[in-house]
Design brief:
Blueprint: E1 4-6, H1 12-24, E2 30-34, H2 40-47, E3 51-54, H3 60-66, E4 72-75, H4 84-96, E5 102-108, H5 120-135, E6 139-145, H6 151-156, H7 159-165, E7 167-169, H8 182-194, E8 202-206, H9 214-225, E9 230-232, H10 236-245, H11 250-264, H12 274-279, H13 286-294
Parallel strand pairs: 1-2, 1-4, 2-3, 4-5, 5-6, 6-8, 7-9
This protein binds NADP nicotinamide-adenine-dinucleotide phosphate.
Length: 295
Amino acid sequence: MKKTLITGATGSLGQLVVKNLLQNVETDKIAVLVRNTEKDIVKEYQSKGLDVRVADYNNLEKLQEAFKNIEQVYLISGSDLSARLEQHKNVVEAAKANTVKHIFYTSTVKKTESTDAPLAPVVNSHLKTEQTIIDSGLQYTILRHNLYSDVVPMFIGDKEQLLKTKSIYLPTEDGKVAYVPREDFADAEAKMLISPKEHINKIYEFNGNEKISYQQVSEILTKILGEEIAYVSPSVDEFEAQMKEVGLPTEIVGMLSMFSQGIANNEFDFDTTDLEKILGRKTKTMQQFLTEVYA
Ligand SMILES: NC(=O)c1ccc[n+]([C@@H]2O[C@H](COP(=O)([O-])OP(=O)(O)OC[C@H]3O[C@@H](n4cnc5c(N)ncnc54)[C@H](OP(=O)(O)O)[C@@H]3O)[C@@H](O)[C@H]2O)c1
């Protein structure tokens, strides 16, 4: 395997990809990009002998230094929606200026590309990044991710909250999502990094094997918790007003509302099985995932 740099290596997905790679390839084939060396996970990487490179996506010069002798970059999209297109352009620029031959990029599935769609800020920055990578002349593999199963607990709250409110309150109507746990993305994508040739210049749609609505999530949780958990889909205005009234920060309300509207518009309702083919198995079901989190 070529020397691969995993960006976002201090984050949830990045850590899982690094863990997966470490089980399957020599440590000296893996480098990690971090921006904050004070994090415990960075110390852990150092103690394992991983090649730790330090740069922020905002800093082109540092990225250029960090990419020396790297052949593949696994680019995890940045979390700052308004800044990330420019950040990703820096990563591509730094890759081009170095020995990098191949970029893997974690993008998003989408149905609507309209600039006034609820999810436009998310989708547009991903689409423009995809195009920047394709236009760069580097080999590319675009990994279009459906939503993480891991966002469900973030959207609906923990066990204590659910047992108190006995309801899921989100304006997702009857929209369905083909969720994938982060660990399944990490498993598949580590495999791809180990055998990159067959994935050169390909775009994949990575979806889970089952599509689930929040009505179904509430039915699964009713069984797991042994208490009736109702599903309520308010109007978007009612939802935003209610969330602000209970004191949720505006940014979080906006994020919940944006993704809920995307779900209601069926932006995540996909059937493709690219991921199952690469994994060689089906993705974890929502029943399994929620049992692990809530039982
Ligand atoms: N499909 C989905 O459902 C879904 C859900 C959530 C997020 N996402 C996207 O997928 C990405 C990975 O998800 P995750 O759960 O692993 O997110 P995460 O835990 O927040 O990790 C994000 C990683 O990116 C790094 N990063 C952010 N901005 C950076 C910058 N300017 N320069 C260098 N590194 C930077 C972070 O570094 P620090 O540790 O220093 O902050 C962290 O390592 C997210 O960033 C987001 O774009 C997708």
